[in-house]
Amino acid sequence: AENVGILAIDVYFPSRYVDQTELEQHDGVSAGKYTIGLGQSKMAFCDDREDISSVSMTAVQGFMEKYNISYSDIGRLEVGTETIIDKSKSTKTVLMKLFEESGNFNVEGIDTTNACYGGTSALFNACQWVDSAAWDGRLALVVAGDIAVYGKGAARPSGGVGTACILVGPNAPLALEFPLRGTFMEHIYDFYKPNMSSEFPTVDGPLSVTSYVRAVDHAYSAYLDKLEKVAGIANPSLADLDYVVFHSPYTKQVVKGFARMVYNDFLRNPEAKAFAEVQQFKDILREESYGNKVLEKAFINVSKSEFASKTESSLLAARNIGNMYTGSVFFGLASLISQTPFEKLNGKRIALFSYGSGCAASTYSFRVRGDTSNIARTIDLAARLDKRIKVAPADFEKVMELREKTHNAQEYEPTGNINELQPGTYYLQKIDSKWRRAYGRI
Ligand code: ACO
């Protein structure tokens, strides 16, 4: 198949959010800690009416309706998520409920899990299937999303909820550049979910931040090496990438991630004119630069204008929804496409950096080869973000307490108000004595 990649994208996020300025006041932290320190404006959340199965169904059914695609056209469905309900039973199998009416049960793919990286692995699988001898001519669907929630404390404002749905096939407007990939994986306990009695992760915040930056170093460098060896580009650098979309735990981390790529460019080519102001960092070893705030600030400064043109427009969803774990990097792509006219994107290279704690990370890229205007219109991101309902921090906390109390509940009927859900949203009706879940749709 030719030009395999992304044919269409849509995103789902809940109708309610908490304002980060109000949350700062409510939590009694200094003004600006969440809004400037983390770079976040709003955080989406859901109550006990929504779980990973319901948000995935909402995303997929909404996608099929908006793009007018038939379930019988799908030959592969991959889910990337780290929000786990039935453990051995995948979210993919729950989504097969939506296929019943079409009679299509011949659908490959299951869930892929490693923190925020599962969606990227799912996308690679889907693209590789279409590119392989196993492909039967049908399309693939990738679902990437999570409910990101943290216990009370410093990590809580870095939560969020969202699911992206991505259609993969040949002759795609966003063609995956198959051989151009750099990956970094290692064993690290920065963020994981060993406590099955809680929805919250066990997280070492500072370690996760360093790990993210280390992963940028290695995955980006490996990507540049591919640009050189496979694409034949001499002295590859950010100049060869038109747009760079990042996994965003909060947008400040993306600013740092971009600056780190610039730092890596500097290490590869310290004599370049652009780096005249940062020569004092030439002799610091990369491995010894983690946590060096002076270096970090200097490269944030040097990278400001390039960040504004290559990355800023990909942050609309992340800033206003929060972290969606596996969905985050695709909400970034959706933000970029919905904010940039096709005339500007046409022919350009869009690179993605995906990071999942634990850790697994890749830098890879797409080439824009077809019209993206219909995708932009369908996502309609800014208008949809504006239509949401603001909830006071005290009420948000009550919802978090409710989720905590009812985690793993049996014979349970949710109490959340379904009238605040957007039309087309699936919601949890009941969990029975065997933890089987039943859903309705607004
Ligand atoms: N005004 C402006 N900036 C402020 C203010 C203020 N009033 N108060 C603090 N800040 C700044 C700090 O200077 C710091 O800036 P820096 O990053 O440039 O040094 C930033 O806000 C963060 O503040 P800290 O005190 O360093 O950290 P905090 O205790 O708020 O915790 C953390 C932040 C660790 C990210 C926490 O939110 C967390 O654990 N989140 C979950 C883990 C996570 O998201 N990791 C990222 C990668 S892994 C993943 O995706 C899950």
From TrEMBL:
The lineage of its organism: Eukaryota, Fungi, Fungi incertae sedis, Zoopagomycota, Kickxellomycotina. This is Hydroxymethylglutaryl-CoA synthase. It catalyses: acetoacetyl-CoA + acetyl-CoA + H2O = (3S)-3-hydroxy-3-methylglutaryl-CoA + CoA + H(+). The keyword Transferase applies. InterPro entries: HMG_CoA_synt_AS, HMG_CoA_synt_C_dom, HMG_CoA_synth_N, HMG_CoA_synthase_euk, Thiolase-like. One of its GO terms (molecular function) is hydroxymethylglutaryl-CoA synthase activity. It is an enzyme of class 2 (transferase). It holds the Pfam family HMG_CoA_synt_C. Belongs to the thiolase-like superfamily. HMG-CoA synthase family. Coiled coil: none annotated. GO terms for biological process: acetyl-CoA metabolic process; farnesyl diphosphate biosynthetic process, mevalonate pathway. Residues 1-173 form the Hydroxymethylglutaryl-coenzyme A synthase N-terminal domain. The active site is at E82 (proton donor/acceptor), C116 (acyl-thioester intermediate), H247 (proton donor/acceptor). It comes from Coemansia reversa (strain ATCC 12441 / NRRL 1564). NCBIfam families: HMG-CoA-S_euk.
